[in-house]
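RECORD TYPE: inverse folding
INPUT: C-alpha cells
STRUCTURE:
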C-alpha cells in the first residue's frame, strides 16, 4: 500500500506541474497583450495539446514539440510581477490540490500486483483511450470494439496523457484518478492569482470560493471524465473577454483558440461560451462584418464535426424536467434515506438561487450563460450537460471575486446558493457520503485558499486529509482484482501486436463486467468486444446483438475467428475466459491465475 500511495502522490504532483506548464506557456503566448493574463490558459492548453499530439504521432516530431513549448517560455523573462501575484494563491492551495489527487487516487486507482481496485466504467474508458492513442492515431482505434474508432472530440486529455504515459513509472489510470484532480485545483488557483482584485479582502469572500465548488457536478466526476479538469479553467479567458475590450485581432484569436480547446475538452462548454462571446461581439465589435463571419463559420464547423463524429449520440437525447426529478427524490426520503435521490432538489434550488443573485447583481451576461446551461441540464436527458453549468458557476464566482461589493450586497442569496450547490455536489458523488464529504471539503479548502490567498485553509486541508485517512475513505465494492491486472498485463507482454483477443467479459448490459468493461483496453491489444457503451453499439441494438452472438460462437468453438468479417487482418487469435468456463479443444492454455485463463486459439 505504501508503494501505491507514493505513486499516487507523484501523479498528483505531476498534475500540479502540468497546470504550471499550461499557464506558463500561455503567459508567454500573450506576453505582448496588456492585461491579457486571463487569456493565457487557452493558448497554453492548445500549445501543449499540439505538442503532445506531435510526440504521440511520432517521436521524430519531438524537436518540433519542444520548440512549441520552449519558445513561449523564453518570452517570460521580466515577468516577475506576474509570478508574484500567482505564488500566494498557488502555494496555499497546493496541499488541497495534492490532497484531492491523493484521495481520488486511493479511491479509484486501477488494480496492481498487490491491490484490488474499485475503478470501473468511464474511469477506465479514458485509460483505454490513452493506451489506444499510443498505439495508433490514424486510425484512432477503439481497442475494446473491433472495427470502431475513437473520435478526436474531447481528446485533448488523451493526447496529454498519452505523452505523459511514456515517462518512467507513469500509470494511465492514475493519470486521470490523481493527476486530473490536482491539475484542476492548481490551474484554478493560478487563474485566481492572475485576476485583478481589490486590495481590501471582504470577509464574505470565502462564499465565492464555496460557490465555485460546484463547478464540478461532483468531485469523482473528474476521474470519470478527466477532460473536465482541462475545460473548467476555460472560464478564466471567457471572463477576460467580458471584463475588458480587446483589440479585434486578439478577440478573434481568443474566440478561435477557446473554441478549439472546447472541441478538445468538453464540447458542450460551447453553450455558455457562445453566450459570453455573442455579448462581447455585440458590445465591442458590432461594426466588423468579419466577426459575424467568424461566428457563423465556428457554429457551422461545430455542427459538421458533431454530425461526422458523434451524431449517434443524438439518439440518446430525450426530454426531461429536472425539477420533477427533484420532487420525486424528496418524496423518496419519506420511505428511505437516499442522498443521491435528494441531490437534484439541492441542485435545482441552488441553481435558481444563483440565477437570482446574478440578476439582482445585474450581471446579465453570466445570468444568460447560466440560463442557457440550465435549459440544457433541466430539459434534456440522455447525455450530461453539467459542464455548461460548471463553467457558468465559475464565471459567477470570478465576478464576485473581483467585484466584492456585489458579493457583500447580495451575500444572503450567494450564501444560500453556495450551500445548496455544495450539498448537491456532496450528495451526488458516487463515492458515498463519507468519502464524498472528504472530497468536497478538500476542493473547498483549495478554492478558499486560492480566493482568499491566506494560509488558514492549509491547516483545514491537512485536517481533512487526516480525517479521510482515518475513515479509510469508506467501504466500496471491489470491481477489479489482482487477477485482472495479471491476466491483461500478461496479454500486453506475451500477445503479438497483430493479435485479436476475444473475452467472455462482455455482454448486453451496461455493467462493469459487460458493456462498461474497458479494462481490457489497457493491455494495448485489439479486443473483439468488451466495453461498448461509448460506441455506436450503444444505440444500434441489432448490431450489438449480432456482435455479442458472434463473440459467443467464437468462444464456444462453433465459429472460427478467421471466418469473421473484420476491419483488418490479424495474424493470431487469443481468448481470455474465467476459470471454470468451458473452452473448446482448439483453445490452448498459455497462462492461468486464480480467476482467468489466457488461451491461444488455433483456427
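DESIGNED SEQUENCE:
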Amino acid at each position: 500500500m505504501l508503494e501505491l500511495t507514493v505513486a499516487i502522490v507523484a501523479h498528483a504532483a505531476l498534475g500540479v506541474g502540468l497546470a504550471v506548464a499550461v499557464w506558463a506557456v500561455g503567459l508567454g503566448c500573450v506576453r505582448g497583450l496588456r492585461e491579457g493574463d486571463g487569456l493565457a490558459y487557452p493558448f497554453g492548453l492548445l500549445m501543449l495539446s499540439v505538442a503532445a499530439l506531435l510526440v504521440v504521432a511520432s517521436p521524430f516530431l519531438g524537436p518540433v514539440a519542444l520548440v512549441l513549448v520552449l519558445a513561449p517560455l523564453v518570452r517570460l523573462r521580466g515577468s516577475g510581477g506576474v509570478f508574484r501575484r500567482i505564488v500566494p494563491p498557488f502555494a496555499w492551495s497546493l496541499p488541497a490540490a495534492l490532497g484531492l489527487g491523493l484521495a481520488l487516487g486511493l479511491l479509484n486507482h486501477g488494480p496492481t500486483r498487490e491491490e484490488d481496485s474499485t475503478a470501473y466504467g468511464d474511469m477506465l474508458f479514458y485509460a483505454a483511450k490513452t493506451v489506444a492513442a499510443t498505439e495508433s492515431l490514424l486510425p484512432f482505434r477503439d481497442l475494446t470494439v473491433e472495427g470502431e474508432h475513437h473520435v478526436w472530440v474531447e481528446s485533448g486529455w488523451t493526447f496529454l496523457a498519452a505523452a505523459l504515459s511514456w515517462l518512467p513509472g507513469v500509470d494511465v489510470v492514475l493519470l486521470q484518478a490523481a493527476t486530473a484532480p490536482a491539475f484542476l485545483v492548481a490551474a484554478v488557483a493560478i487563474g485566481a492569482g492572475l485576476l485583478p482584485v481589490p486590495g481590501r479582502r471582504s470577509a464574505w469572500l470565502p462564499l465565492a470560493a464555496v460557490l465555485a465548488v460546484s463547478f464540478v457536478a461532483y468531485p469523482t466526476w473528474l476521474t470519470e471524465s478527466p477532460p473536465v479538469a482541462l475545460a473548467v479553467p476555460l472560464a478564466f479567458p471567457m471572463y477576460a473577454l467580458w471584463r475588458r475590450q480587446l483589440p479585434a485581432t486578439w478577440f478573434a484569436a481568443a474566440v478561435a483558440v477557446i473554441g478549439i480547446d472546447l472541441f478538445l475538452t468538453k464540447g458542450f462548454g460551447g453553450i455558455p461560451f457562445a453566450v459570453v462571446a455573442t455579448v462581447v461581439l455585440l458590445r465591442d465589435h458590432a461594426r466588423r462584418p468579419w466577426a459575424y463571419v467568424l461566428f457563423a463559420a465556428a457554429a457551422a464547423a461545430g455542427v459538421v464535426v458533431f454530425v461526422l463524429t458523434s451524431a449517434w449520440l443524438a439518439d440518446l437525447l430525450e426530454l426531461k424536467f429536472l425539477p420533477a426529478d427533484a420532487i420525486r427524490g424528496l418524496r423518496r426520503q419519506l420511505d428511505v434515506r437516499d442522498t443521491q435521490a435528494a441531490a437534484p432538489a439541492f441542485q435545482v434550488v441552488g441553481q435558481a438561487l444563483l440565477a437570482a443573485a446574478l440578476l439582482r447583481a445585474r450581471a446579465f451576461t453570466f445570468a444568460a450563460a447560466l440560463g442557457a446551461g440550465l435549459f440544457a441540464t433541466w430539459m434534456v436527458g440522455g447525455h450530461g450537460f453539467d459542464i455548461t453549468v460548471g463553467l457558468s458557476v465559475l464565471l459567477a464566482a470570478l465576478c464576485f471575486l473581483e467585484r466584492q461589493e456585489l458579493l457583500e450586497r447580495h451575500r444572503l442569496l450567494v450564501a444560500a446558493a453556495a450551500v445548496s450547490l455544495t450539498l448537491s455536489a456532496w450528495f451526488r458523488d458516487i463515492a458515498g457520503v463519507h468519502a464524498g464529504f472528504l472530497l468536497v471539503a478538500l476542493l473547498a479548502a483549495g478554492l478558499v485558499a486560492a480566493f482568499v490567498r491566506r494560509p488558514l485553509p492549509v491547516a483545514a486541508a491537512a485536517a481533512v486529509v487526516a480525517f479521510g485517512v482515518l475513515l479509510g475513505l469508506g467501504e466500496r465494492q471491489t470491481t477489479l482484482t489482482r487477477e485482472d491486472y495479471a491476466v491483461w498485463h500478461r496479454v500486453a507482454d506475451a500477445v503479438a501486436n497483430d493479435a485479436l483477443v476475444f473475452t467472455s467479459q462482455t455482454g448486453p448490459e451496461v455493467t462493469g463486467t459487460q458493456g462498461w468493461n474497458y479494462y481490457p483496453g489497457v493491455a494495448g491489444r485489439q479486443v473483439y468486444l468488451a466495453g461498448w457503451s461509448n460506441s455506436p453499439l450503444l444505440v444500434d441494438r441489432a448490431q450489438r446483438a449480432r456482435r455479442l452472438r458472434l463473440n459467443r460462437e467464437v468462444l464456444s468453438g462453433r465459429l472460427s475467428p478467421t471466418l469473421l468479417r473484420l476491419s483488418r487482418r490479424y495474424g493470431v487469435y487469443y481468448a481470455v475466459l474465467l476459470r471454470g468456463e468451458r473452452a473448446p479443444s482448439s483453445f490452448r492454455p498459455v497462462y492461468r491465475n486464480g480467476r482467468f485463463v489466457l488461451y491461444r486459439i488455433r483456427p
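NOTES: Residues 2-109+171-471 form one domain.
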